[in-house]
Design goal:
heterodimer; A: 234 residues; alpha/beta; Rossmann fold; 10 helices; 10 strands; B: 292 residues; mainly alpha; two-stranded antiparallel sheet; 3% strand
């Protein structure tokens, strides 16, 4: 579904990603774990065309995203929940969701999309007229995810959804991610919290200093000695 | 003792003036709110509105109802082209907040001198769009002033509805709040910038057409309103639409009342005093930032 091959990315003259290869199959939950500054967010931003590519390709269902403008990515079926939620604080919850259905293909269907997402996130329906800036951290994360789902994506990229949330709420976010996956959405979950990410995913990649250093089934990674030491604190 | 009816008349004058300040300032605040840049060519779009009206009505003898939309469309297109050709290439580059100031100053100087060279420095008179007066409560009210109040009210309401309800308006607000997040929603924020710039120019031109019959048309007519608009925008809070409207009205009323109680020479002084006062008491303006 999403195939990243030999991707090289630079910030100015400094290279930050070195020959990344990534392959995500339709229907799976795949995770990308790694420490802060390892290149996780850079990789997601590059996939969404927010950062330029020096070399390599990003194929989404056979279409090379490299030739596309950042705002066209959504129409191709890829949606991202950015790090730090990035909801629109001065708009209401409902307006945030509606703007998630901005692309032409779904704008006409935004009311039925709203209904669908309210079913998945009843808490947001209770707060639909509230300004998004007044929501709690967990609610903001839910709103960011629901907003990304409004465009009816085939694949959803999540950047650090657990960041800054209490363990109980992280648990709830992860359950939601699994529920979304069961509705047929492929998921790439980027996390610093390796333990929880590997438990909801089927496969994982480990990124260090801009390189993929390990990949495999999530269970295998969970039991890997090096992963245990570096990421699980065991 | 000031006579009651004179006070009322000055209040209405203040509202008329204030609603024009509000129109010019809301264009300015729109650009700041969305693109995070100051537009020093804003007064020149006001001037283009005035000249447009002059060429349409006086030179070409077109009726006002044809001239007005024509002028607004032309100014919109000029705004869009200037944004596309001169401002967009600078956006996002290092130091563009300064380069945006320089380029808009340059555009302003160019338009002003273009007008001086080709249209001349004489003060041109434009007839009122609606002649005559109407008697309300023993007061003579010019139809043109009622027209100004009405058009401002219509524009404000229309704008508010567009921002709240339409796909474009919501995209504009999203872009203003976080353009990267807006991109992730599939919003082409560069195009939003362009249309915003055109609309902003349109608002200034509309004010120019409305005030041209009162003040007369010349190449420098835009500088005064632009400086006032900057004060209004700071008064209301940079980037706040309702702040610009309210700030405009406050400024118009302050000025017209100062004429009444002091002399007309104090008019500009009071508006700057108002600005200094606001900067001391509430530096972020009445509505702060990020309000829509």
């Amino acid at each position: 579904m999403l195939r990243v091959s030999d991707l090289h990315v630079y910030y100015g003259d400094a290279q930050v990603l070195w020959g990344i290869n990534l392959n995500i199959a339709p229907g799976e939950v795949c995770t990308l774990i790694g420490a802060n500054g390892g290149g996780k967010t850079t990789l997601l931003k590059t996939i969404c065309r927010l950062l330029p590519t020096r070399k390599g390709s990003i194929l989404l269902s056979g279409v090379d995203l490299k030739d596309r403008e950042p705002h066209e990515i959504l129409s191709l079926g890829l949606s991202m929940v950015p790090e730090g939620r990035r909801i629109f604080p001065s708009m209401t919850v409902e307006e945030n969701l509606k703007i998630g259905a901005y692309i032409r293909r779904v704008w006409g269907k935004k009311d039925s999309q709203l209904e669908k997402n309210y079913k998945l996130f009843p808490r947001l329906e209770e707060r639909r007229q509230q300004l998004a800036g007044t929501l709690s951290g967990g609610e903001r994360q839910m709103l960011a995810i629901a907003r990304a789902l409004m465009s009816n994506p085939q694949i959803l990229l999540l950047d650090e959804p657990s960041l800054g949330l209490a363990p109980k709420i992280v648990e709830h976010v992860m359950e939601t991610v699994q529920a979304i996956n069961q509705n047929g959405v492929t998921i790439l979950l980027v996390e610093q919290n390796a333990n929880i990410a590997l438990r909801v995913s089927q496969r994982g990649y480990v990124i260090e200093s801009g390189r993929i250093v390990m990949e495999g089934g999530s269970d295998a990674l969970l039991n890997n000695q090096r992963i245990k030491e570096a990421y699980l604190g065991l | 003792m000031i006579h009651f009816s004179i006070l009322i008349e000055q209040l209405i004058n203040g509202l008329v003036l204030g609603s024009m300040y509000a129109l010019v300032a809301s264009g300015l605040t729109l650009i700041w709110g969305t693109m995070k840049m100051l537009n020093f060519a804003h007064g020149e779009f006001y001037m283009l509105g005035g000249f447009g009206l002059y060429f349409g009505i006086v030179s070409s003898h077109l009726p006002a109802w044809i001239t007005l939309p024509l002028v607004l469309i032309i100014v919109f297109l000029i705004g869009v082209l200037l944004e596309k050709g001169l401002i967009a290439p600078l956006l996002g580059r290092p130091g563009w907040d300064v380069s945006a100031v320089v380029i808009t100053l340059g555009i302003g100087i160019f338009i002003q001198n273009f007008a001086f060279k080709f249209w001349g420095g004489d003060f041109q008179n434009v007839p009122y769009m609606f002649e005559g007066t109407v008697k309300v409560f023993k007061m003579n009210l010019a139809w043109h002033r009622i027209y100004i109040l009405a058009i401002t009210l219509i524009v404000i309401i229309a704008f508010w509805q567009i921002m709240k309800r339409t796909r474009f308006g919501m995209a504009m607000r999203a872009t203003a709040q976080d353009n990267e997040a807006a991109t992730l929603m599939g919003i082409p924020y560069r195009r939003i910038y362009r249309i915003t710039f055109g609309l902003s120019a349109c608002l200034a031109a509309l004010a120019g057409t409305a005030l041209a019959p009162i003040f007369s048309v010349n190449p420098w007519m835009g500088s005064g309103p632009m400086i006032k608009a900057f004060i209004v925008v700071i008064l209301g809070g940079l980037g706040s639409f309702s702040g610009a409207i309210l700030g405009g009205l406050i400024m118009g009323l302050t000025e017209s009342l100062s004429v009444l109680f002091l002399t007309s020479g104090w008019k500009d002084l009071t508006s700057f005093l108002l600005l200094i006062l606001i900067l001391v008491i509430r530096p972020s303006g009445l509505f702060g930032t990020k309000e829509w």
